Amino acid sequence: MRTLILGVLLLSLGTQSLAQSIALPDMGDPSQQVLGPQDERRIGQRILMKLQDAGLVLEDPLASEYLASLGSRLALHADGAGSPLRFFWVRDPELNAFALPGGFIGVHTGLMLETRSESELAGVVAHEIAHVVQHHITRAYADRQTIGLPTMAAMLAGIALAAAGGGGGQIGQAVAVGSMAASAQRIVNFTRANEQEADRVGTDLLIRAGFEPNGMASFFGRLENLSGSAAQIPEFLRTHPLALNRAADTENRSLRTRPTGRTPGDELYYRYMRARIAALSVATPAQAVRDHERRAAEGGTDEADRYGYVLALERAGRLDDAARELAKLPRPAAAALALRLEEARLALLTGNTARAWSTYEALRRAYGNDYVLTLSYGEALVTRGDPRLAIRLLDEQLRRRPESAELQELYARAAEQTGDIAGKHLAMSQFYELSGDVQAAFDQAEIGLRAPNASGQQLAQLRQRAQRLRELNEYEKASRLPR
């Protein structure tokens, strides 16, 4: 909602001047523009890259993989998703989630912490998936009577401005007291219809994926209570329907079917991940430690909260205390990998490398080529151990998930340590392309072609990439996509 409000305000203030202030290119005549899937993907990648550059994306393999897994379970039952969806956490205490062009879906950490069950979280994610599969963004882009390219440019400018910390608070205050043009009012109305459709489709996704659909209704109802008096918010600023109305609608739809196929372990792991995000989101770890100890003294913590306490102690530098608290925790199957990975991490941080390596190897025997395990073990090997072993682990994982920018970046670091300069630049070229920076990807391929001791296969791959990226770069310049 904040992103849309920013975009609407930018439109009313004058799209061109503000877009130029952040170097957003002229996007041309809206009647001549049609967004294809690759164009949407590039726009979404660029916005995500800006958020990452501003440090607003929570880069944590366990938490990220949890959200991706949850989203994939829901998207499996959705028709029309097109290209694979990508889910990411946004470091922000506000209760919000949003879908970007190209199937990028962001969930604020503040929203996760406000949910009370996995079905509530799934309800929000399903709602955003529905925006993607119903092609709401593409429709808005193509309908020049409603939004059109100038307003899309304004929305992109607003996202970039918010990501860079460019006065979002002042803009929010200006929206609250300012007036909007008639065109801005039409945008809000159009989006409200989209929200209602997304609620309906999202509820169906929840039911088909085996989640409790009442979770969405209960969460919307609680949002209504949190927002206070609805009369305090001007109707034309509400891009979402009133939460109370949404709760009634979703509750009526959810009465048709009861969920099946979920286990108590799913709910337990959700609580562990919520505790993890809580610990990683706090700016001052010492405060997180004090908050937990206060709740524990009041008798308000469970095993998932104690896991979060371990993470807070680690972040506060109290490593021995963290290890002692971790040893006290039970080892439920649903959270076993997360707990053992924390054991290995604490062993490394306290200098007990022998125990760390033995823990990682035991996890490899138990979990095979698990993605999060590979990232954690690979990072440890690159920073403190054997980069050649890291290369073997990462190479095997990349055959399964070549689209992982995190794996590509880690592989590049390992390759550099082993002296494989061409391999480093090849991986970095793929990393930048996956991140949406085509020019940087092309530059890395060109540098790699000049690397000493490059193999014939590497040179062939680098030449092929350089040619394709050169053509893609020229296309983006000609089409004036955001860069």
Could you please describe the fold and organization of this structure?
The structure is a single chain. By secondary structure, the protein is mainly alpha-helical. It has helices at residues 2-13, 15-21, 37-53, 61-75, 109-114, 118-133, 136-142, 148-163, 168-177, 182-209, 214-227, 243-254, 264-281, 285-297, 303-315, 319-328, 336-349, 353-367, 371-384, 387-400, 405-417, 421-435, 438-449, 456-479, and strands at 86-90, 97-100, 104-108. A three-stranded mixed sheet has the order 1-3-2. Helix 1 (2-13) packs antiparallel against helix 10, helix 6 (118-133) packs across helix 10 (182-209) and helix 17 (336-349) packs antiparallel against helix 18 (353-367). The longest helix has 28 residues, at 182-209. The two termini are 24 Å apart. Mean pLDDT is 78; it is low at 1-33, 144-150, 163-190 and 229-240.
Short description:
The protein is mostly helical. Helices cover 69% and strands 3% of the residues.
Helix/strand layout:
Blueprint: H1 2-13, H2 15-21, H3 37-53, H4 61-75, E1 86-90, E2 97-100, E3 104-108, H5 109-114, H6 118-133, H7 136-142, H8 148-163, H9 168-177, H10 182-209, H11 214-227, H12 243-254, H13 264-281, H14 285-297, H15 303-315, H16 319-328, H17 336-349, H18 353-367, H19 371-384, H20 387-400, H21 405-417, H22 421-435, H23 438-449, H24 456-479
Helix pairs in contact: 1-8, 1-9, 1-10, 2-8, 3-8, 4-6, 6-10, 6-11, 10-12, 11-12, 13-15, 14-15, 15-16, 16-17, 17-18, 17-19, 19-20, 19-21, 20-21, 21-22, 22-23, 22-24, 23-24
